[in-house]
TrEMBL record:
Extent of Polar residues compositional bias: 1-11
Protein name: PCIF1 WW domain-containing protein
GO MF, any single term: RNA polymerase II C-terminal domain binding
InterPro entries: PCIF1-like, PCIF1_WW
Residues covered by region (Disordered): 1-27, 174-204
Domain PCIF1 WW: 366-532
Pfam families linked: PCIF1_WW
Biased composition (Basic and acidic residues): 190-204
Compositional bias annotation for Basic residues: 13-26
Amino acid sequence: MDSNKSSVQQHQQRMKRTKIKKRQKLKQSSANISSICNLTGLSGGGLPETCANEGDLLDELTALQQSSANTDIASVCKSSGLPQTGANEGDLLDELTALGKEASTHSIPRSPPLDQVPNIRVELARHLHTQNLSKFLLGGSSLRMPSFERWLLDSKLEETSRLEAMISKSIHNPTLLHPNDKKKYGRAARSFDSDESERTEKDRKLLRESAFAAGQRDASHADRTNFWLHHVERDPILPYHAQESDPSSVRLAQEIMAAAGNGMGEEESKKARYIVRQLCRKASEACNEICQLQERAGRFQKLAANPSKKRKRNDKRRRIDRVSVEWLNEKQLSLVYTQRKKSSAAKDCQKAKPFVVKINSSSYHKLRSMFDLVNKRQTKVSEADVITHAFHCLVFVLVIRYSTLAGAQQINGDLRGGGNQGAVNSEVFGVLSKHFGELGTECFASPFNSTSPRFFSAFPSPDVDGFFGSYGDFYHPPCEEYFQKSGWFEANPPFCPGYETQLARRICGLLDKLSKAGKEATFVVVVPTVRCGKNLAAPGSNHYNGAHDDSFAATVHGAASGSFNMLIGHECCRSHIVLKAREHGYIEGSQHLRPTQYKESLYSTSVIVMRTKMWECEMQAAEFERDLREAFASKHRLETEKRRIACDE
């Protein structure tokens, strides 16, 4: 009898655990569907409660959007809160589709949920690993920080291009992700099937989501590829599969040999290739360690304590990590990250030191206004403290992320890095608006240096930049419709050969499509002038060192000559304006960390105007060039003089 009772109890416990697992899976499916609705622009408010799983919900969503014959459109609009202004079902269907695309066509993109703030511990770990990589490269060679920045950006772009090609092939042939049909028997068959399903479950889910996203009207293969690319879990900065044979690695080896000045012999080539090989290996190991940390600590930052867990009476420990603000003066403040206190019984109960980063007050207030503008739909009075804490966490992550992108040595006090890209000042954007219209978009910006409310940045929109209004990555936007309408685009990419090559291909391809469609569009490209000889750097500057500098500059600029000639040789190239060294300037790439804002350019710059429409007359082109040169004039000396006068007073 006792044995029967125990067996019955065990059976009941198993049934109970099975029910709990089913509920958890159902909750997870609903969460996945909510994310799909957010990404595709559908509210999901009109979904029936009879959908039992994710597949049914996907089918139901597709039916709501595509089927007009068997669906009462008015009831769908009523249940999902859409206005019923259409005269018939066709008009209502068009209105429903237009509202579904609001996230991609509206001037303010949809922000990620506030519970998706990146984990600060993971960001700090990535920053430390990148710092070690840059010190390894610069310590073992005669290179400067821009060389490491070029390799980091170009190698990550090459890795993304390889992944994009794999995704495109899988979308063309979905059977590539089907389980292996090889027959197995007995226990081996069961283990093989379970392992195979775990490996391909996430991939098949992404295929279903991309297929649903492609069900919208005017969807393209590029939209499906970018949709899937944004959902692949990968490091946003460090390359995982960098190899010695990659173009970026080959260019880095050439820079190492040119900087050493010992010629291009076999011994120098072996040493340079060895350094690059070790750098690629260390980057891969760093990605593995960051991935393991993210699995332990979580992908997102915890912004509030769990109310279900009661605190003991004498327990005064912080239950979440905090980012607090300390104002140093009117022009500068500190963001202090403090980890939560651990119990004394923990093995690593040593008190963690706070991590402090400084930022200018002007950048802080600018980020706050951008954050409030994008996230105003999520703001509630009862959640003001949580939202403020989320904003401080995002600013902290933003400073760490862009410091990591610049070599991870900016916030240590020496401000190394960040010179591989300079921002264009607001006067230049005023000239572009005067000659090409008010609606303009920045193709390569950041929340720190963006001038236009419409801008693309270094990271995808669901990532940290999306909280401040970024449209995402210029090369892989969430929707290609951004570039299917008239307007002008300002492209000032990082000064990397790989980025410039990809930029030339993309802009030329977009202009060809827009020309065939009969739409007016203008791309204003700002890149370093590719020349041969001593005019690359200004003689007498800190960056000019005679024949040695000419050899190194020729190596760097020679790699960018192909993309440069592609731009100026295109049929849509209307003007090519060369700004001489020391006669123009930029805004500091790390202006949010520096006391100064402007810098003088030590290299000549080319402003290439590419339009689908010709200039109306030569006078218009001459007037544009005159206004542009005045706007680009260096403001560094004037700023330095003002600071000197303020210090004397």
